[in-house]
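dumping this here so i dont lose it
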């Protein structure tokens, strides 16, 4: 079920990173990447038993502040240096786990023991009562003078893009054809299920997707499996929101608070930790136990890497204290090989270099679980890996000072044109982390790659322009602003995955 890439990507990320930037320093330290570079990886001749921190000459903490562009760009590094407790790091072959019924059953059985499953097409169909409630809600908005309840705004001619009277009329018409109650069609989570598209004629078939609803003792969950953009596969599990307290037609979702805590917009804090804690009704330890019990059933050797808070919000205007309904704990799971974890960052990978690219991208493996007071709230599993053979044992790594030189030079280079868009930007790098990342050579195969050690520089940034002042001190962040191959010093674009 693998798909080969259909284009060749030029070796080296340097060109992608530097497009539109100022002239590269003469003594450039970004090396060519690709399969030839990987073949040159060699084992180190380390003194037996020496810990990595000692071998690399890495401190516990690193501090430096550099200013460029007349103060328009500041790199403020005040970071804990996080290194695994290991005496060496190996590289491993990795591939996309084969997508078949066994994989679907593995995830299904891990999270839905004893559940009944139904087709989402029939289960989510609105009844006459649903339409009556929505029409009443729209009329209430209108009576209150709220003619744009979903923030559609206006078009280029200044005309409203949402007409509440037309929406009421449409719903009154649909209500006439709506059923009195839902007809539930029981199914088995799998690909190839038929469904009625409601337009008459032959039934359609979901060849590489599953959209279902699971009824469990803990509640009702939407359960989707998406493989339409192979080799990427996504398992999504979401507990039904509190439909009695929100408008089902408006946007609602969970959001991790790493994007909110420690952040300000025009001098106002987006959210505080106390705001979130006031909504929690479960301990972190109990929540983690629930998440770990589910993930253990997968049998993939995933472990909790770190955790965050998450909030469930509704409405179109972003997250605020007034539109949060509940909160939970978000656990990020990754693999650990020989004591070295795959570093978790906010990046999903799998991006394209440009809109004309014919590359078939492959995103990273991810497993994120939100747990609240009434159990599992949301699960996202992306692209489970099959870890293969060791490629290079105890691979030779660059020393810490050399890595820092690359980091400081390339942070300047990759932000050289930032003052064209912002009055100033200040990066706050708070963690420097050594761990694994997956890289791949899209010119060879789009679903096989290599786990290699990398350094990630994680934090936040402040930015100012004519319209706003945005600040993020990086304390809660999982955003990596520079990723460097610890073996050869090449800069890796985490969005692309190489």
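and the seq i came up w/
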């Amino acid at each position: 079920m693998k798909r080969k890439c259909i284009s060749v990507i030029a070796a080296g990320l340097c060109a992608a990173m530097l497009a539109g930037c100022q002239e590269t320093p003469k003594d450039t330290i970004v090396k060519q990447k690709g399969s030839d570079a990987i073949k040159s990886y060699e084992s180190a001749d380390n003194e037996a038993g020496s810990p990595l921190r000692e071998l690399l000459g890495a401190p516990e903490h690193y501090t430096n502040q550099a200013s460029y562009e007349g103060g328009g760009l500041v790199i403020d590094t005040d970071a804990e240096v996080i290194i695994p407790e290991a005496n060496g790091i190996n590289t491993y072959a990795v591939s996309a786990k084969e997508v078949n019924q066994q994989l679907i059953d593995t995830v299904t059985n891990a999270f839905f023991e004893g559940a009944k499953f139904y087709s989402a097409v029939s289960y989510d169909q609105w009844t006459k009562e649903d339409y009556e409630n929505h029409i009443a809600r729209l009329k209430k908005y209108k009576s209150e003078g709220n003619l744009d309840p979903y923030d559609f705004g206006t078009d280029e001619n200044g005309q409203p893009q949402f007409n509440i009277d037309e929406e009421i009329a449409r719903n009154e018409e649909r209500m006439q054809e709506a059923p009195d109650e839902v007809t539930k069609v029981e199914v088995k989570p799998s690909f190839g299920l038929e469904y009625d598209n409601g337009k008459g004629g032959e039934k359609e078939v979901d060849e590489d997707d599953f959209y279902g609803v699971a009824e469990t003792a803990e509640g009702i969950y939407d359960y989707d499996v998406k493989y339409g953009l192979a080799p990427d596969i996504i398992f999504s599990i979401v507990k039904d929101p509190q439909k009695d307290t929100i408008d089902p037609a408006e946007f609602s979702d969970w959001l991790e608070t790493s994007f909110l805590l420690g952040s300000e917009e025009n001098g106002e804090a987006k959210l505080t930790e106390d705001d979130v804690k006031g909504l929690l009704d479960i301990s972190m330890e109990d929540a983690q136990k629930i998440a770990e019990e589910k993930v253990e059933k997968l049998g993939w050797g995933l472990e909790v890497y770190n955790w965050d808070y998450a909030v469930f919000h509704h409405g179109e205007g972003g997250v605020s204290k007034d539109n949060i309904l509940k909160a939970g704990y978000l656990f990020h799971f990754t693999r650990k090989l020989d004591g070295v974890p795959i570093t978790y960052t906010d990046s999903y990978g799998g991006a394209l270099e440009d809109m004309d690219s014919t590359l078939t991208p492959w995103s990273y493996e991810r497993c994120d679980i939100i747990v609240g007071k009434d159990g599992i709230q949301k699960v996202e599993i992306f692209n489970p890996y099959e870890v293969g053979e060791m490629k290079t044992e105890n691979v030779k790594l660059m020393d810490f000072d050399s890595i820092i030189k690359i980091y400081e030079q390339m942070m300047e280079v990759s932000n050289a044109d930032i003052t064209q868009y912002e009055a100033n930007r200040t990066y706050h790098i708070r963690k420097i982390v050594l761990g694994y990342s997956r890289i791949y050579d899209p010119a060879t195969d789009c679903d096989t790659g290599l786990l290699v050690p990398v350094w990630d520089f994680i934090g936040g940034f402040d930015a100012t322009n004519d319209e706003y002042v945005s600040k993020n001190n990086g304390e809660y962040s999982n955003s990596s602003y520079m990723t460097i191959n610890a073996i050869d010093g090449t800069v890796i674009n985490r969005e692309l995955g190489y």
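The radius of gyration is 25 Å.
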